[in-house]
Amino acid sequence: MHRFVFSIFLCFAAIAPFLNCGVLADVVTCSGIVPMRYRNDMISIMDFGGVGDGVTMNTKAFRAAIYRIEHLRRRGGTLLYIPPGEYLTESFNLTSHMTLYLARGAVIKATQDTRYWPLIAPLPSYGRGRERPGGRYMSFIHGDGLHDVIITGENGTIDGQGSVWWNMWRQRTLQFTRPHLIEFMNSKNIIISNVIFKNSPFWNIHPVYCSNVVIQYLTILAPPDSPNTDGIDPDSSSHVCIEDSYISTGDDLVSVKSGWDEYGIAYGRPSIDITIRRVTGSSPFSGISVGSETSGGIENVLAEHISLFNMGVGIHLKTNIGRGGIIRNITVTNVYMENVRKGIKIAGDVGDHPDDKFDPNALPVVKDVTIKNVWGEKVQQPGSIHGLSNSPFTGICLSNINIHGGTTTGPRKTPWQCSDVSGGAVEVSPWPCSELTSTHQTGACSIPF
Ligand SMILES: *[C@@H]1O[C@H](CO)[C@@H](O)[C@H](O)[C@H]1NC(C)=O
Ligand SMILES: *[C@@H]1O[C@H](CO)[C@@H](O)[C@H](O)[C@H]1NC(C)=O
Ligand SMILES: *[C@@H]1O[C@H](CO)[C@@H](O)[C@H](O)[C@H]1NC(C)=O
Q: What InterPro entries does UniProt report for this protein, alphabetically (predicted)?
């Protein structure tokens, strides 16, 4: 909890406006997007033979309990209580109108026996597994076509025990794409709150083709060298609100996506209205990111009050040729970052392709990106913005950005780098590239400062 004490301490410092100092402003929250439901009907995993000794398999207990919720539908839905203890299990599906409630000290642990992980079809917007051709392993906790689902409790843990999967990735012995820790597909009215996610095999939380999703008060942990353990990846989803969470993983903390090249273009499902606020964390990759899978388009993203420590890139918008898709109206504001390789990166040449059938003429469009109120300490390089020559990035607006170099003295290593970009900059230090015009009277920035 020292990071929390540390944040409070910083609130009294000059950089307070960049931090999560709730006392300084009215605290805005995600509430209202999804109604919180109280369940009158409650069952315990123990009623279905659950054994929390860390070694007994609880697959039957979870499946039986959820079967009971699905088939003996109770008015107002049912809460499934997981008492303290370690419940080892294979993956399982949730159902609608349920709350999965983890008591303090409850741990739901994924089996490390990879033979017992079922395969499911690739996502239509990806055309294949993200890592390997063909199907993909179903997420540890999975929901398809659901509504009114809550995962909450007293900060119990969902532990993916992902090291076996990371090793298969390292040894190149993976046959199919690794499983996410939690995936909701085609679902709506979902709340995930007050849970600890640990050691996901692959991405931690993946809402795809979903709407009205609230994700709050989470702790998401995986080692910095664990491959592709993204924190939260809203994908072709709308009205997703993420707040008040601590994320420290081996890949992007939050990454907004919308499908991959020709498959994502054909599926055509954008991510719209995504809010990310009061997120703190660290990772060797990106803090707040968009992409690189952006083929369905990404619109109306607001990220605010973000604190990043020991990062690769602080704010990262990434796409590529072949992606197509429009990325627009992205706002990132009130960011504190410290010990970061690169502060801000916007690039049109990031990420791989699903196969050689991608259309090299499907160029992404990036416009109306506002990044403001950023304070950086020990940042090796302030930023780079590289559009595409046949699709320059427009309306890239930077304001009130102060980025300070590393502790080593001497001339600043690298200044901003830009190409194929237009927009504006006001009160940015170090001063960004000449491509960003220096006044706000030019009209280059369509969004007012
Ligand atoms: C879980 O859901 C997946 C995808 O919807 C389905 O293929 C699978 O059969 C389900 N598994 C169980 C045990 O119900
Ligand atoms: C759970 O953790 C969150 C995030 O750290 C915290 O805000 C919340 O107070 C904790 N809740 C409980 C019941 O301990
Ligand atoms: C831009 O996105 C914000 C949310 O970040 C939204 O409130 C606003 O209406 C959007 N503007 C346009 C022009 O769509």
A: GH28_Enzymes, Glyco_hydro_28, PbH1, Pectin_lyas_fold, Pectin_lyase_fold/virulence
